[in-house]
Structure formats: structure tokens, C-alpha cells
Amino acid sequence: MICAIGNPVFDDIRTPWVHTDGRVLSGCSTNAALAYAKLGGQTAMVGNVGDNERPGLERHLRRCGIDYHLGRSPESGGFKLDYDDRGNRELTVLGIAEPIAEIPPRYFDCDALLFGPILQETTAGLIREVRAKYDGLMFLDPQGLLRRHVNGSIEHFCPKGIEDIVGLFDYVKPNELETEVLTGIDPRKDVRAAAKKIKSWGPKVVIVTLAELGSVIYDGEEFIDIPPYAVHAADPTGAGDTYAGGFLFAHLGGADLEAAGRFASCTSSIMIEQTGPDFTLERAEVLRRAATLPVPAPAIPQ
Ligand SMILES: Nc1ncnc2c1ncn2[C@@H]1O[C@H](COP(=O)(O)OP(=O)(O)OP(=O)(O)O)[C@@H](O)[C@H]1O
Ligand SMILES: [Mg+2]
């Protein structure tokens, strides 16, 4: 079982191709948990939600067979996401949920804990406390650690001491913006230098995702280029989150880094063809896509 930690959000998403009909369930931990569960893995989720959204969320998670611990919050998290035609997004805050106070002890038996905060709800204190008690695989999607709320909008920043926090994790998966915020290096210009810098802070494996260019996995010895599975990205929201779900599903099931990365790439390709959480994600289709991926060509020629 994995446990995904981070608040769910209810987002209003506009891309050049689709616009959600009202606010839809999303969020880094949520999308990863949904993907992992749809693939057939045992999944739990920890996060805070407002009373209005709680019944619907609980129904959704139960329908997907996801175990959960949902804390109370005066309101639920949410963003309005506006994408430009190059896939860049601007976030406006619709609601903010409370920080997560604790992880129930029963989840310390999980095979992996996936931290996927959306906006500072997994504090450095919580992460340190969990690391002190848990010696299994800790996976970080750092997006919510690098965001702050300023006058209704979200801006990115590099928190003081982030190197130490990143170093508490076994696997760390920033996207290209997060990689640049963390390292000061544009990964489209030098993905290897950026991955090396993050690796030097202590994680065993660094995964830099590069949207339509695929991803690069670095374990300190090898750089593994993972090709994208080419699709029309109607709504790229959750690409990185479902990548994490797919990666952990394959890797915990025994796949090596390269095979897990290819499986993850194809998992995310299915999500971005549609919008919202209600899409079919079948392991057989992920495997079918993965079998057609080209032999790795460098995501970015070095
Ligand atoms: N346009 C695309 N075409 C094919 N694959 C894509 C595309 N966009 C993303 N992907 C796949 O999804 C992975 C993660 O994408 P990306 O780097 O955009 O994540 P992200 O920005 O963290 O997304 P989010 O935070 O919304 O979950 C990529 O490495 C790639 O495998
Ligand atoms: Mg992301």
C-alpha cells in the first residue's frame, strides 16, 4: 500500500481546448492516489477538506477503493488554473485548506509515503517527524513546498533550508519550473546539471519531468532518458501527479527505474488526454503504450 499525503483541491481549469464544468477534484496527492488505485494498487490518502466537499470526496474515494484520513478544515483548497497555448499555467486561489497536523500511525506500515502538497500544507516539521518514524520509501513531489499565496495569486519561491528537506526523501520529482526554482538551472538548457545539484542534497533518485519532452531519471550513476508518449494534451493538469502514481506502482512492483519511468510516462499520457478525475486508466493500456515507446533518445540532447 502507498499513502499519498497532501490536501485535495477542487479546481476550475481552463486550457485552450477544455474548460471544466465547475470545480473538479484534483491535487497532487489526490491525482497520484487515484492513478495508483485505478492501476490496481492499494492506496490511502491523508489531507484536509472543508465540510461542503467532504461527502462527495468520501464517496469518490470509496468508489475507487481508497482508504483515507481526511481532517477538517474551514474550507477546501482550490485553484483557478489558466493555461496558455504553451502549457504554462497561472494559478488564482479559490480556497486554502489547513496544514496537515499528523499522519495516522497505521500508514507507517505502507510501502511508500508520497508527499504531494499543493500549498505548504506538509510543513518541514511534519516531514521531519514522519522521517524520524518511517524508514520506508519517501517520495516527494515538491510543488506545494515551492508555492506561496500573495494577494490571491500563487508565486513560486525557494524556501530557506529546502535542501535539507529534499535530502530527507528517497525520491524527488520536480517539474521543469520547480527544478529551476530549486536549482537556478533551466532544465531545458542543462537537465543533467540541475538533477546533479538536487541529488547532491541527499535523495537516492531525482526525476525531472519536462512535460512534452518526457523526463530524466538520475540515480547518481546514470541519467535515464524517458521518452514521452505523444498525445494531444487537452488538459495537462495532473500529468506529474499521475506520473508519480504510475512510477510507484511499477517500481514497487519490481520494475527498475527505466521501466518504471516508461510506465509512468504512459500513465500520465492517458490523464492529459482528458480533464478531471473521472477517466479510465487501465494497466493494460499503459503497458500497450509503453511497449510502443521509442528506445530512449535523450529528452534534451547533451
Ligand atoms: N504534452 C505532453 N505529451 C506527452 N506527455 C506529456 C505531456 N505533458 C506531460 N507529459 C508526461 O507527463 C510527465 C509529467 O509532466 P509535467 O512535467 O508537465 O508535470 P507537472 O508539471 O508536474 O504536472 P502537474 O503538476 O499538473 O501534475 C512528463 O514527464 C511526460 O511524461
Ligand atoms: Mg507537478
What does this structure look like?
This protein has about 300 residues and is α/β, with parallel strands linked by helices. It has a single domain (about 1-290), classed as UDP-N-acetylmuramoyl-L-alanine:D-glutamate ligase, CATH 3.40.1190.20. Helix content is about 30%, strand content about 25%. Strands 5-4-1-8-9-12-13-14-15 form a 9-stranded mixed beta sheet, sandwiched between helices. The protein has a 4-stranded mixed beta sheet with strand order 3-2-6-7. Strands 10-11 form a two-stranded antiparallel ribbon. Helix 3 (about 125-135) links the parallel strand 8 and strand 9. Helix 1 (about 30-40) crosses helix 7 and helix 5 (about 175-185) crosses helix 6. The mean pLDDT is about 95.
- Strand order, largest beta sheet: 5-4-1-8-9-12-13-14-15
| Bound small molecules, deduplicated | adenosine-5'-triphosphate, magnesium ion
Termini separation (Å)?
38 Å
CATH topology: UDP-N-acetylmuramoyl-L-alanine:D-glutamate ligase
Mean residue pLDDT: 95
Largest sheet: 9 strands, mixed
Helix content: 25-40%
What is the CATH class designation?
Alpha Beta
Radius of gyration: 17 Å
**Structural class estimated from helices and strands:** alpha/beta
Can you tell me the CATH architecture? 3-Layer(aba) Sandwich
Instruction: Give the count of structural domains.
Output: 1
Unreliable residue stretches: none
Q: Classify the oligomer.
A: single chain
Q: Looking at the structure, what is the overall shape?
A: globular
Total DSSP E strands: 15
What is the H level of CATH, i.e. the homologous superfamily?
Ribokinase
Number of helical segments?
9
Strand content: 15-25%
The run of helices and strands is EEEHEHEEEEHEEEHEHHEEEHHH
